[in-house]
Amino acid sequence: MPVAIITGASKGLGRALAEALAARGWDLVLDARGADVLKEAAQAVAEHGTRVEALPGDVTDAGHRAGLVAAARALGGVDLLVSNASALGAEPLVRLGELPLEGLRRALEVNVVAALGLVQEALPLLRVSGAGAVVAISSDAGAEAYETWGGYGASKAALDQLAAVLGVEEPGLRVWAVDPGDMATGLYAAAVPDDDDPRPAPASVVPAFLRLLDERPASGRYGAPALVEGR
Asked: 152 an active-site residue?
């Protein structure tokens, strides 16, 4: 069975993607900081009959990243790496003039440095997979200028560039930066707690990721809503 590592997998898009992959027979290594929530998610995902390893921890910890890859190796390798864990930099979001620099450092460490660190750890296994793929969860905030989203957006712009260069440097892999679009997630609620406008559930964009895996288009940046709509 193919094996995927998904960070930030205890809820939201990470969990929805884990559910969909497990339903297709993928074995999974799941990461999140909250041990109890991650355990519950892993148990639910495992009901599809696949092997699921849940490793709570912080992706900024090199030892934790090594543990994720070791767990995947024990399951057979790494065919897919999904960097979904994210930090906002401030909760709720604030304008750049008030953004704590420590918060910006945290966003960059989680969203960029740790994502690259995990790729580096997993590269030997991805290269021999035969169908190795990396998915970096991006954001329109990385491409557009939205008030209060500057720190988070800067980290996602950096992640997009890393993904683009990785795709050039590793032609044997598929490297996709994916903007999932607006979703009803805990991350968004923490970012803008007074915004109660309805938003799509994360599961609604999962077909976009499955399409990427099925069709394996060229490495690049993709918008999940367009993929779902068949564009």
From this structure: yes
